[in-house]
Amino acid sequence: VLPVLVLIITCTIGMLYVGGFFGADPSGSTEFAGDFIGAFGNTDAFVGLPWGGIISLVLIVIYLVARGVISFKDAMSCVPKGFIAMVPPIIILTLAVSLKTMTSNLGAAEFVRDLMYGASSGLYSLLPAVIFVVACILAFASGTSWGTFSILIPIVCQAFPDGEMLVVSIAACLSGAVCGDHCSPISDTTIMASAGAHCYHLNHVFTQLPYALTVAAVSFVSFILAGLIQNVFVNLLIAVVLMVGTLLVIRAIVAKKHAGIFQEMAEADKALAK
Question: Which of 42, 61, 148, 260 is the most interior residue, by most CB within 10 Å?
Fold first, then answer.
């Protein structure tokens, strides 16, 4: 527990330091001195997180060596081994960043913005469901949920300045972006999850897709109804009923499939017995 806490604390302090919380930021500005939220918004994670990681590594090595858990020689040999273990995720992240940059340079944000503006007038009630699907696709293709937020939320606020439809559409944008990011093979969270579990990256992606897509399908239907009904309690009840019903249907299908397999095995056993 202590090494994990040290890592969290040192990374947080590193980001605050780079953001100018303790004085001046790298540009020399003292605007965010003592401002916790402002320093976090002004920080550069590419600088703050490595510093926090390096400091925590030194402190953790000293702690473990002092306790006799590991020798200094073994601790130093773990450093290159850890780097070697992280080479595949680093390569995947590098290629993912390249793909994200290419997508941005091709004007994906502008294309989606114009497409949503064109559809907003004719699909008013169905727009939350459309926003959900667009957010899923955009986050899946770009591998980032926060980047999808920055593209779609201004469009949603422009289409629905206030009222229930604004709340429903913002919810559709957030949930769709998170779903797409969760399914995306080039998402940094997906890459680090497979690396942390020491499993083949695409196996991790393919095994989580059925779960995520099942919930996404139920959410899509729920957002269609939400655009028409616009009542949070009614829509929540309908969504829960749909989800439970979907799980029961899946359970019945799987049980029927297993029953068929068991029957075939029983018939094979009878044939072998004869």
Answer: 148
